[in-house]
Amino acid sequence: MDSNLSRRRAIGLLGLGAAAIGLEPRADAASVQERSNPRYYRFSVGDFQLTVFNDGYKIFQPVQPFWASEASPDELNSALEAAFLPTDHVMGYYNVVLIDTGKDRLLCDTGFGKLLPATAGHLVSQLAVAGYRPNQITGVFLSHAHPDHMGGLIGTDNKPVFPTAQHFINEIEWNFWTQKDPDLSKTLLSDQDKKTYAQRARDTLLALESRFKKFQAGNQLIEGVTTELAPGHTAGHTILHIQSGHDELVHIVDLAHNYIIMFHNPDWTIGVDSDPDQAASTRKSIFEKLAAARTRVIGFHLPFPAVGYIRKKGQGFEWVPEPWKQV
Ligand SMILES: [Zn+2]
User: In the chain, how many H helices and how many E strands?
Assistant: First the structure.
């Protein structure tokens, strides 16, 4: 299928406003689950202690064209139905990972913070529940400058949330968002949302410029944590290899935004991809390697606690969650 053609058709047929791309949360934030379920989970990688925090959720309705604009409705619905999922909406999950090496405490992204939606932005309160204060975070890795990842960098008081942390960003990502008119023409965002995305990213990065250290692909951020460029979702989108002793974990960040859609067919993309074709080919090549090596992974948008494995299945892949571990 000509994916560009179907994307163009989708854009042409629909005026994509905030509601269409799921920026408007449902007003059901205070559900029973919201109040009672734990939002963090600890596990280890070698000698490192990792904690994953659920920053919240967002409901995307309708599903297309924002999700899998390349798919026919029948193809997408049958993939969702086969996984016992509804076909009228997609649930977005947001997981922030803290790597505590004993020497460094590196936070991987920051969640929505004060930005939309109201159903997310729980990171800081959950850090406290898990026994961490923001000034104990020694490093903040920003995988890319989308609102669900960088919204938590600056608080409602306009001050840095992690005042003593060294901030890290890929220099390609920095250059993309701090230029005057970042090219978001291949996304499915409305013109207004393109402006909002660009403005927020630029304002946030420049406000914290003195705290940011720009790295290049392959650089090590702290002992045991190295970066790999995984472009397409954004120009400088970066994943992490976390290694301690013989144990390894790869943080795939935004290589997949849903545990069914992008696994069932890795060519299916999301409407915020800066370059959807590149995002799909990056996803396929890295998934192939991780599946072949049986590497343990974690993902920013996979269902909490988001630790597991990628397995080949037919022409695509399958997400295999790791069972909850007590130790
Ligand atoms: Zn994301």
Answer: 9, 14
